[in-house]
């Protein structure tokens, strides 16, 4: 009986068609701000598998918390297509450089300085954004979001488009929309109700309060969470989050909620003293990649396709309407909110006086350049 290796050597074709859209390195599209790295796949025992890889798609914009620029969105679309058609790729690991941020969404500087007041331009940008989310949801390989740090705004949206998320426990999650002049309709309003229920989705999508990785695991928006802080050489749970009890004295769930007052401050001080180490995160990601490797590939792909359907159906139902509304929104509230974030500072604050705006609108005040200027945090001084 011929061995499998002999059969492969005898029958594998000499030429394979390249199904990539364009033959360009992903990095060349965005000055290296998105990296595509094929890393050797490993078995569960840690041994390297010859000829098979996991494709790491890495956001590389640390100074801006791995927010994505227009060029990064283009590169990401192609990166997921590249992984999808690469016969040697087992799974995609979608992550960011560093240990502060996976991604904080659209680039607010580009939004404020180029797209604000230009709905026709933002409509074109949103075609690319929509295609990025669709490329993740349509990837023919399982996609793991390696949450190396905060996952906020559009970062939360593209992260939820992945099939699995594994987070280091100092990462926060949440939306930014209504606080920065947008609505979380780039996927969050489609995915959140499915993943954490309508009530919790409403809280996150409207109030934009961040929540911890431990709460994210409890709510079911991530598959696993691992410690990342080392104090005295020993891993400890995020010291700013309640992790040692589940209920408070009234029977309410407190596990995963942020500590408050002096306890929270003490936790922040401990984080400053400690060292951040993502080795347990990488171990957990490699373990999942190894489990995915140990399956029939077409059955895996079919299972992904079926299990993605709830997200995909919600996404496809709404994405074009969302794109149109987000474009027009660049005339008023997005123009105001993203400029406030971009032009504000820690001292002046980076959000507008929402009450002042509401008071003006209550009197029928029209949206004029003058009104927008007056709402800038620096405009109040
Ligand atoms: C809450 C934050 C995420 C973190 O706050 P903090 O820890 O205080 O850090 P900062 O000092 O704010 O940020 C550090 C530096 O990073 C820059 N930064 C952070 N986020 C972005 C971003 N998204 N784009 C560009 N630059 C960013 C920040 O300016 C600091 O640099 P600096 O030089 O100024 O010191 C907080 O950072 C925050 O709220 N960030 C913005 C989040 C946001 O609004 N994202 C966009 C949401 S909208 C979106 O993503 C959408 C996607 C598609 C659909 C439509 C849509 O709206």
TrEMBL record:
Its EC number is 3.7.1.21. One of its GO terms (biological process) is benzoyl-CoA catabolic process. InterPro entries: ClpP/crotonase-like_dom_sf (IPR029045), Dearomat_hydrolase (IPR017613), Enoyl-CoA_hydra/iso (IPR001753). Pfam families: ECH_1 (PF00378). It comes from the Bacteria. Pathway: Aromatic compound metabolism; benzoyl-CoA degradation. Involved in the central benzoyl-CoA catabolism. Catalyzes the addition of one molecule of water to the double bond and the hydrolytic cleavage of C-C bond in the alicyclic ring, 6-oxocyclohex-1-ene-1-carbonyl-CoA (6-OCH-CoA) to yield 3-hydroxypimelyl-CoA. Belongs to the enoyl-CoA hydratase/isomerase family. This is 6-oxocyclohex-1-ene-1-carbonyl-CoA hydratase. It comes from Geobacter hydrogenophilus. The lineage of its organism: Bacteria, Pseudomonadati, Thermodesulfobacteriota, Desulfuromonadia, Geobacterales.
């Amino acid at each position: 009986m011929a061995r499998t290796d002999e059969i492969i050597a005898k029958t594998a074709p000499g030429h394979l068609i390249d199904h990539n859209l364009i033959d360009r390195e992903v990095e060349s599209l965005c000055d290296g701000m998105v990296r595509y790295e094929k890393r050797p796949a490993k078995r569960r025992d840690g041994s390297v598998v010859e000829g098979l890889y996991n494709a790491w798609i890495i956001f590389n914009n640390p100074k801006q918390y791995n927010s994505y620029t227009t060029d990064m969105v283009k590169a990401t679309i192609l990166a997921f297509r590249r992984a999808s058609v690469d016969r040697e790729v087992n799974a995609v690991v979608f992550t960011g450089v560093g240990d502060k941020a996976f991604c904080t969404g659209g680039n607010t500087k580009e939004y404020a300085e180029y797209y604000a007041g230009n709905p026709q331009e933002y409509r074109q940008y949103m075609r690319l954004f929509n295609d990025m989310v669709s490329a993740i949801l349509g990837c023919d390989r399982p996609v793991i979001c390696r949450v190396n740090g905060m996952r906020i705004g559009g970062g939360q949206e593209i992260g939820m488009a992945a099939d699995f998320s594994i987070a280091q426990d100092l990462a926060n999650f949440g939306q930014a929309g209504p606080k920065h002049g947008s609505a979380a309709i780039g996927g969050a309003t489609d995915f959140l109700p499915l993943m954490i229920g309508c009530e919790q989705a409403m809280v996150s999508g409207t109030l934009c309060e961040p929540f911890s990785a431990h709460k994210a695991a409890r709510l079911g928006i991530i598959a696993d969470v691992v410690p990342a802080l080392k104090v005295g050489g020993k891993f400890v749970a995020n010291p700013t989050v309640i992790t040692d009890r589940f209920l408070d004295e009234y029977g309410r769930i407190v596990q995963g909620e942020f500590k408050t007052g002096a306890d929270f401050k003490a936790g922040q001080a401990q984080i400053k003293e400690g060292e951040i180490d993502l080795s347990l995160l990488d171990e957990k990601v490699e373990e999942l990649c190894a489990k995915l490797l140990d399956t029939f590939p077409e059955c895996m792909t079919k299972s992904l396709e079926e299990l993605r359907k709830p997200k995909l159906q919600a996404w496809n139902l709404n994405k074009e309407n969302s794109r149109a509304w987000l474009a027009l929104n660049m005339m008023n509230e997005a123009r105001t909110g993203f400029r406030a974030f971009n032009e504000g500072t820690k001292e002046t604050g980076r959000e507008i006086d929402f009450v002042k705006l509401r008071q003006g609108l209550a009197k029928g005040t029209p949206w004029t350049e003058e009104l927008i200027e007056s709402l800038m945090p620096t405009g109040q001084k």
